[in-house]
Design brief:
This protein folds into two domains: 14-74, Helicase, Ruva Protein, domain 3 (Orthogonal Bundle); 82-235 and 247-265, Phosphatidylinositol Transfer Protein Sec14p. It has ten helices and five strands. It has helices at residues 14-32, 38-41, 44-53, 58-74, 86-91, 121-142, 165-179, 194-203, 209-212, 252-265; strands at residues 94-99, 105-110, 147-152, 184-190, 215-218. A five-stranded mixed sheet has the order 1-2-3-4-5. It holds the Pfam family CRAL_TRIO. Residues 238-266 are annotated as: Disordered.
Length: 266
């Protein structure tokens, strides 16, 4: 893995703490991953980001590193084959779409392209793993080292409602917060409704204060203009993607179903 352009400058006792973490990782990594992945899992930039996320506490950073390795092994992140996630790719559920004002590459997630029962949660998570790994490469090439995400609910209807989304979102929170330390710049939720606020109720206890501060609710597309260039558009070239179509209002029946699911999750 190439060193990123935005190499983080260490000061004070930080170089020594990095060396301490590297020494522990060097001993452990051959036990956990195959030989061709040792360099990737010993990557200096990632270890520095772990230290930053854990306030330069070496023991905490090492524990998080081990969780990161085990998590990637669980989802076979280094062996994702295109054919396994081809359906998600064909549907363009998520795509890289320009950059924010700071130059961070932006991943757009189109909620209206997801339908319950269409994909199992593990496949969906592996698809997002694939997309985020792509984004990290883009961010390092751009020199920012971070990504932004827009969860775009334009055009969402009750047909897109998926009860498994609560489980998926909790796992995704762990994915970003624990396994991509210091990589997320901002998460923008476009057109938040009762369902979104309900999901946030479920996942909020799993969020650190730092992660909570990175979430911005945008009621209209013009709210994104604070963070994105004036001419920024959400589009992957498909017809009608630039037309603002907020999601349908929730019915009373749907609200009750959501409230029941929240109760089951807590």
């Amino acid at each position: 893995m190439d060193q990123p352009k935005n190499k983080i400058i260490l000061t004070g006792d930080q170089p020594q703490k990095l060396i301490s973490l590297q020494e522990r990782v060097k001993v452990e990594v051959p036990k956990l991953v195959r030989e061709d992945l040792v360099q990737k899992y010993s990557n200096e930039d990632h270890l520095i980001r772990l230290l930053i996320a854990r306030e330069w506490k070496v023991n905490d950073s090492f524990d998080q590193w081990k969780r990161w390795v085990e998590w990637r092994k669980q989802y076979r992140a280094d062996d994702i084959k295109i054919e396994e996630i081809q359906q998600e790719i064909n549907l363009n559920k998520a795509f890289w779409n320009g950059s924010d004002k700071l130059g961070n590459p932006c991943l757009v997630v189109k909620a209206k392209r997801h339908f319950p029962g269409q994909s199992n949660p593990e496949t969906l998570i592996r698809f997002f793993l694939y997309m985020i790994d792509q984004g990290i490469q883009k961010a390092d090439q751009a020199g920012t080292g971070k990504i932004s995400v827009i969860w775009d609910r334009e055009g969402v209807t009750s047909k897109n409602f998926d009860s498994s989304m609560f489980t998926i979102m909790k796992k995704m929170v762990t994915l970003v917060q624990d396994n991509y330390a210091e990589r997320l710049h901002q998460l923008f939720i476009l057109y938040p409704n009762f369902l979104v606020k309900s999901i946030m109720t479920v996942v909020r206890p799993f969020l650190s204060e730092k992660t909570k501060s990175k979430i911005a609710l945008c009621n209209e597309i013009k709210d994104l203009k604070v963070y994105f260039p004036e001419n920024y558009q959400i589009s992957d070239g498909q017809i009608g993607e630039n037309v603002e179509k907020p999601q349908d209002e929730d019915t009373e029946e749907e609200r009750k179903k959501i409230e029941q699911m929240i109760a089951e999750q807590q």
